[in-house]
DNA sequence: AACTAGTCCAACCGCTGTCAA
DNA sequence: TTTGACAGCGGTTGGACTAGT
């Protein structure tokens, strides 16, 4: 047998919370805490609400240090960059924005930010031209690269996300062979050694976040899957997973955008990273954002979009 | 002033993984 | 081992508000 029923749904109040209910809930939680049991809480607090509803009200509204109001440009960039990487994992995104709730971010994305980005796409198409790229390397396109412009390091110093679930929503866009710019650079092959060199050349100062795939045990036959690690230094196992394709964004005082990818098997090692200088933005990037927005609901977790025989993917967001 | 369309956001709904009985 | 409640999450909805006509 399972547990006892959670609550009598016929006798719970729905709809907007009154100030009286708010203060009851707040007082109770401040006094006794949640006790790890939301279902029992409303009864104890004298509320005719479902525990679920109490939890939501507390987390999204009554909890201390909740930030309401306009999002800053920096918060915009954080949301954009994480959305491009992990998709609509609002709770994870919210965890990186102290004081913001997942619901808040979700609403903000759906009502404002998404439109803002779409607007940027329109503007960029009609007004801007790609700036010349000084590097001797190729210039790949990368979704959202322009949004990282002047973006400071955003992770809280004590931030932690030890483990993420597979990140694959980014892959179809970052790695799509239909992307002509990427395709043009698809001869690149990235190896662990090249990344080590890169890391040595651009040593991490504070934190880094790494998204990617390559666990051999996962859904795709080539072992493609995703993992994210985060910390002050790169772990050995992270390095050992890096093969084939990589992309990196660093941001801070001096934005560096790095991308490296390639077809995998049998190809010779062409350890190439491409750097995109600070302030660069390309119309193509915004096109990718638009495409991501349009397709985000469809392509998340669809590893099949990637040619299993061609690539191992590793996308790395690296900042210093 | 009245109506309509668009926007915002709090709250609900339903799904999933976890865990207690 | 099975069953079903719980916690948490993302998607969606509907009412309040605002801007435009």
From TrEMBL:
Pfam families: Myb_DNA-binding. It comes from the Eukaryota. Coiled coil: none annotated. Transmembrane segments: none annotated. Keywords: DNA-binding, Nucleus, Repeat, Transcription, Transcription regulation. It is found in: Nucleus. InterPro entries: Homeodomain-like_sf, Myb_dom, SANT/Myb. Residues 9-62, 63-117 form the HTH myb-type domain. Residues 9-62, 63-113 form the Myb-like domain. This is Uncharacterized protein.
